[in-house]
Amino acid sequence: MAKPLRIALTKGRLEKDTIGLLEGLGYDCSAVREKGRRLILPIPDANLEVVLAKANDVITYVEHGVCDLGVVGKDTIIEMQGKFFELVDLGFGRCRFALAAKKDTDFYSGFGVKSIATKYPNVARRFFESKGMDVDIVKIEGSVELAPLLGLADGIVDIVETGVTLRENGLEVVEDVVPISARLIANTVSLKLRQTEIEALIRKIEEALQK
């Protein structure tokens, strides 16, 4: 048997949803379900080896070829970019990037340069460039909702799922930026050298998603 295809999964919700998808294909994922503290786990009947990692690291591992495949959110793909193939929209992990500001303020009024707080500076910069707007980007690691409340920024660009956190902090969505969901990505060399195996897995996944 060929060596297993190595697939990096983003820890947490995307990991659980991906394992659910693989189990739906009939594969025994008990080793991953009962992982303990292990980070590399086998799915023998699928000839897969799962690597559990943070989202940014999933892209790094795939890009450098130590993993053949990866499952990561479109948010991370847009922010990091990189050299890999995006193969399938897996349909789960749905949310969106949105521009938000303090409630009842007209964000686009006035002529001054707007200040934008975000964890995703590349996403924010490209969004405003597409509008021909010059903005100051402030990189925030924690709760970006604080920035407008403290007067640090005019608005934020962040991931929004339900909007509850925004509303509870007196903010509202001004405009949606781009929809997000989990994607299957592949290393460029792996896709050439292991094309048959990867395409067979893709077909099974796409058939399952269409049911």
Mean pLDDT, rounded to whole units?
A: 95
Number of strands: 11
- The largest sheet has its strands arranged as 2-3-1-4-11-5
**Integer-rounded radius of gyration:** 20 Å
- What is the makeup of the main sheet? 6 strands, mixed
CATH architecture of the largest domain: 3-Layer(aba) Sandwich
| Strand-pairing-aware structural class | alpha/beta
Beta-strand fraction estimate: 25-35%
What global shape is seen?
elongated
CATH class of the largest domain: Alpha Beta
How do the helices and strands follow one another from N- to C-terminus? EHHEEHEHEEEHEHEHEEHH
Roughly how much helix do the residues carry, as a percent range? 25-40%
How many domain units? Answer: 2
Spans of at least 5 consecutive residues with low confidence: none
In the CATH hierarchy, the third-tier topology of the largest domain is known as D-Maltodextrin-Binding Protein, domain 2
**Total number of helices:** 9
CATH-level-4 superfamily name of the largest domain: Periplasmic binding protein-like II
